[in-house]
TrEMBL record:
PANTHER family: BLR6921 PROTEIN, MAJOR FACILITATOR SUPERFAMILY MULTIDRUG TRANSPORTER MFSC. The keyword Membrane applies. The keyword Cell membrane applies. Residues 219-240 have a biased composition (Basic and acidic residues). Residues 247-260 have a biased composition (Basic residues). Coiled coil: none annotated. Keywords: Cell membrane, Membrane, Transmembrane, Transmembrane helix, Transport. This is Uncharacterized protein. It comes from Nostocoides vanveenii. It is found in: Cell membrane.
Amino acid sequence: MSGFALGPILAGSMLSQLAWHWLLAVNLPVAAIAVLGVRIGIPADAPGDLHDAPLDAPGAVLTMLMMGSTAYVLTSGVEHGWTAPLTLLAALVAVASTAGFVRRERTAEHPMLDLTLLANRTIRGAALAQLGGSVAMIGAIFALTLHFQDAYGWSPMRAGLANLPFVVTMLLATPVAEQLAARLGHRIATLVAAATLTEPGGHGLGSPARVCRHRRRNGRDDHRPANHHDHLRDRARRCDAGQPHFGRSRPQRHRAGGGH
């Protein structure tokens, strides 16, 4: 939870002063503190608790290849296009490594991830719920941070601070969710939470009317860079004209030298 609270703020403050590459160096002191904490604060395992199963090195390599190629598909798709040969090659590697990982874990004598556990309905449902919740949570914070900068023109620091109410709400809702689960059961509590998070009418942060009101209140461009996407400038013009509908035009990427 601390990562959700501090991540956008620290990243926003760093991006205000440094290039994004420096964000990769943040993990180094965190890893060093974790290693020291494990060495100092956690007692060594008893010999009787250890097993002789070898490390599933092929499974670990396939996992890294699967995650790395999947992440690169998203990066390459934005930079080079979704039908570019490099993007398609990365997607092929991602699919092949995922299939290889599943095959490896199903046939290995000592798998890194025992896929037979997913045959249990309780474990399978809990794993899917945890996966869905994590993807939704991370995706919401990521999308909101980009939305605050892209639609509102906020700085990375301000966009990071804007996520604090989201994190505080999660902290305050945790004991309420536990009480609901104890009284109503996990299924009913999940439905109540989903209904609470659903905002009818499309009047959320990203609704066209709200973004237009923000633009009219704070100026047309909201400190936009000169080379911002054409479709966003068209949105600003529509907002100034009192037309909240943004249209469906695809954005055009600006390349170095003025090309598209």
